Please model this.
Amino acid sequence: MKFTATQIAEILNGEIIGNPDIEVHTLSKIEEGIEGSLTFLANPKYTPYIYTTQASITIVGQDFVSENNIETTLIKVENAYSSFSKLLEYYNHIKNNKVGIESPIFVSESATYGEGAYIGSFSHIGENVVIGDHVKIYPNTFIGDNVTIGSHTTLYSGVKIYSDCVIGSHCFINSAAVIGADGFGFSPDETGAYQKVPQIGNVIIEDYVDIGAATTIDRATLGSTVIKKGVKLDNHIQVAHNVVIGENTVIAAQTGIAGSAKIGSNCQIGGQVGVAGHIVIGNNVKIQAQSGIGRHIKDNEVLQGSPAFSFRDYYKSYVHFKNLPELVKTLNTLEKTLKS
Model:
């Protein structure tokens, strides 16, 4: 797709300085700009590159004043970074605005889908599935029986949604994510062998949730595993049965959350964090990467370590930990001196 400076300026309500008819067909960093590319300048430390970039169009703030000759066409906007993000969103919408039903696919006679839907080839849509308007289902996707999917949600290639799950509107679920697989429920019998406990609940994902590639969210044993509105989950996250994650919480890759844990709203959880089962994490909690959470956490705590404790105490302790060999040596010297 090609866009002229005039078209871009109209989208961003910007002012053109340069050639209004120049076209771009790709995006680039300002320091790596090539002819035919669009870039932006938001961070002042990259300002020198605007005089050397080969990008055809550069988005800049209204307060930008050139100190040397510039070859790139400028589009001046109120906020360069947010305007570039808006343009990316617009571009992404056009690029992914697929509609229609490809072949071959299987769609149950009892399933329904709304206006503007896209269903990619080799997808399976089960019994009594309800799909809203403008939903995008990319190829090789499996949707089990009795699933509901809200409007404007996108399921990328290879997503698996097991039966009875509910997916909200404006969600993005990336490739290889599995929603609604059985929770890890087993009970030992008198011989010590483990017998499977039936997992008959479901998963409820509310609106505006993003789920990364290869992330797994298990169905509840009873009731629902719930991912609330605005949650953002990175790649390779494990969410176990009956977990609840509060609104607008963000979780980085490779985090594991054990069964029945409850995580509050507006939390920020780093990568490779382990959360034990049946604990409650409050609102606005921040957990540093690779921490282990094995107790209830109050609102607004900031934690690090395994087992995790206050990050300030962690840093103070870590200073001493690094000096531990010298401290031990000093103690041994003192002990010998006292004995003598």
User: Anything to note?
Assistant: The longest helix spans residues 80-95.
